[in-house]
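can u do me a favor
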């Protein structure tokens, strides 16, 4: 029978408590009464024995003393009176003290024995009196009667004690029988306990342990990539509900596995395409920067530079969204996050005629988040709004607003769609819940977990008269401290703050790139500042130059036809590790470099890179080379 686990374990607890209560009751009603009977029967015997022995000893001493006087020869009638223990007789008899504690037959015998003993004590007085009057023969005859009375009293005392002992023996026999009964009861309870434990163990194994092991095995197989059929657990308890949730999860994963594989392939293709696109963009940008530096009034070259920046930013954002780098929490502006997310999705909005309005507060505190995770949250919210409005008649508008209040930075995404019904509002964040035929139902769940992981929360706003659905996520504002600006990580334009005279004088820079235009521009740029520039059009030539030349800094492309940058870098780490630490990667795919080669992010520049930014990074490495002193640049 399938029962909820809480009820099942409650039954186990009740069974154990009942078993323990049965043991206690059995011991109380079988063993305890027998112990009490023995105690009541045997408790007075020791005291009775001791009192009778003491009284008999006094009487015997008195009889012996009188007999000793009478046995002496001669003597006058005026002899000294013998010392008799008559004054030491207790005020109360043994019968009055212990009679109620003994069996009736024993008490009766004890009463007769006490009467005989009293008569002996009286007769001893008569013997003494005759002795004092000189009737020696009469005293001896009376003493002989006392001896016979003493034997009778001794016999009566013995019979009384035997009866008392027999009462104790009967009590012991009853106790032994009670113990036998208790032993059998204990054996029965032990058997019941073994059967109870076996039944509970069987039930736990069947309804708890086996399902958990089955679920654990299925989880391991699923994690290893084995897609098997559903778990057929009979419904009725929590494990069955858990198995149903797991089946739904694995089915969703199985359905999405193919799509994820296509997405991964698309990511690789996009990464390669972005690299190929960034190479000409790098050449165009570098040439445009040189032209603008030579003729700052030239509006044409300024326009070219601005358009190159726009195209390069789009390719960087696409590659980063498809293949995000390792999680990096830093200070960032939520407005910048929203703008980058809007740039990724606004084309779909324009294509479907959906208006997108931004109301971003101009002065907004920074937040400490992973910018790409928060961009994913905004893209998910905008994507959900787009999916709803694309199949809705009437006005199609989405409003995105940011503001700060109460130490929190808020972002709200509201659409003009039909809204979310009251029936499903409580389930909107549940995993695998979706109202879309092609949806998996994980977007809002993942988004809320990402926001909560950053210290905030994502909520569904209450319905209002304007209609539509409105979601708001809030994040704690970062502390107002001086920001350490990193141009590579922030991806913004930075002016070099180095000495413009000749920071690279006497240094040798190796430029490795398979694009002639890029090599030519970088060669002219750094030679103008007094550096010696060695160029290599591929990885093999770069390795030869590294082994032959005294290189100080290497500018290394990642994708090259003969030997790519990763292999060149590995060779440098083996043969010239000090030069590997002064290598700057120029690539359109920063993720591959940082993950595969463990290169710091500040030495990976995404093409097309601004010459001023490149100059700053190379200048930092050049300062390190100058600080190392002579001999560090020998090949």
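np, heres the sequence
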């Amino acid at each position: 029978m399938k029962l909820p686990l809480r009820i099942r374990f409650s039954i186990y607890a009740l069974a154990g408590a009942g078993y323990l209560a049965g043991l206690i009751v059995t011991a109380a009603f079988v063993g305890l009464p027998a112990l009490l009977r023995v105690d009541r029967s045997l408790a007075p015997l020791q005291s009775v024995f001791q009192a009778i022995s003491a009284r008999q000893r006094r009487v015997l001493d008195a009889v012996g003393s009188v007999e000793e006087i009478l046995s002496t020869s001669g003597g006058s009638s005026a002899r000294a009176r013998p010392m008799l223990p008559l004054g030491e007789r207790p005020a109360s008899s043994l019968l009055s003290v212990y009679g109620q504690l003994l069996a009736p037959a024993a008490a009766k015998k004890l009463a007769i024995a006490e009467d005989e003993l009293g008569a002996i004590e009286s007769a001893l007085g008569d013997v003494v009196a005759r002795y004092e009057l000189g009737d020696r023969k009469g005293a001896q005859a009376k003493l002989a009667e006392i001896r016979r009375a003493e034997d009778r009293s001794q016999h009566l005392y013995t019979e009384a004690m035997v009866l008392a002992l027999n009462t104790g023996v009967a009590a012991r026999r009853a106790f032994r029988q009670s113990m036998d009964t208790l032993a059998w009861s204990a054996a029965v309870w032990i058997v019941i306990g073994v059967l109870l434990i076996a039944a509970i163990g069987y039930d736990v194994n069947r309804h708890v342990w086996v399902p958990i092991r089955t679920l654990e095995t299925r989880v391991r197989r699923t994690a290893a990539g084995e897609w098997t059929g559903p778990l057929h657990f009979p419904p009725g308890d929590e494990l069955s509900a858990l198995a149903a949730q797991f089946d739904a999860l694995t089915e969703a994963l199985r359905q999405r596995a193919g799509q994820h594989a296509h997405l991964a392939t698309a990511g690789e293709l996009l990464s390669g395409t972005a690299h190929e696109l960034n190479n000409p963009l790098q050449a165009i940008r570098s040439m445009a920067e040189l032209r603008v530096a030579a003729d700052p009034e030239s509006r044409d070259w300024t326009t070219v530079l601005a358009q190159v920046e726009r195209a390069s930013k789009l390719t960087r954002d696409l590659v980063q969204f498809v293949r995000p780098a390792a999680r990096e929490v830093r200070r960032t502006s939520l407005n910048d996050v929203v703008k980058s997310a809007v740039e990724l999705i606004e084309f779909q909005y324009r294509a479907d005629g959906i208006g997108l309005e931004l109301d971003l507060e101009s002065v907004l505190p920074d937040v400490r988040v992973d910018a790409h995770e928060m961009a994913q949250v905004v893209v998910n919210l905008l994507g959900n709004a787009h999916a709803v409005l694309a199949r809705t008649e009437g006005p199609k508008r989405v409003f995105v607003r940011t503001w700060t209040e109460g130490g929190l930075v808020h972002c709200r995404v509201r659409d003009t769609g039909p809204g979310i019904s009251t029936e499903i509002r409580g389930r909107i964040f549940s995993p695998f819940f979706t109202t879309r035929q092609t949806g998996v139902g994980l977007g809002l769940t993942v988004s809320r977990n990402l926001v909560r992981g950053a210290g905030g929360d994502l909520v569904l706003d209450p319905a209002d008269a304007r209609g539509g659905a409105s979601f708001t996520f809030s994040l704690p504002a970062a502390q107002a401290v001086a920001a350490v600006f990193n141009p590579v990580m922030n991806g913004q334009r930075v002016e070099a703050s180095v000495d413009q005279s000749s920071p690279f004088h006497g240094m040798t820079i190796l430029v490795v790139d398979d694009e002639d235009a890029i090599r030519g521009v970088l060669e002219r740029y750094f030679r103008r500042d007094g550096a010696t520039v060695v160029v290599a059009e591929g990885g093999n030539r770069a390795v030869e130059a590294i082994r032959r030349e005294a290189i100080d800094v290497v500018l290394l492309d990642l994708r090259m036809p003969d030997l790519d940058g990763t292999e060149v870098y590995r060779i440098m780490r083996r043969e010239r590790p000090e030069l590997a630490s002064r290598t700057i990667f120029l690539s359109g795919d920063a993720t591959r470099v940082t993950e595969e080669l463990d290169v710091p992010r500040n030495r990976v520049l995404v093409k097309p890179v601004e010459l001023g930014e490149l100059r700053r990074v190379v200048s930092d490495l050049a300062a390190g080379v100058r600080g190392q002193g002579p001999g560090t640049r020998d090949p």
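Residues 73-80, 85-92, 480-500, 629-635 have pLDDT under 50 and may be disordered. hope that helps!!
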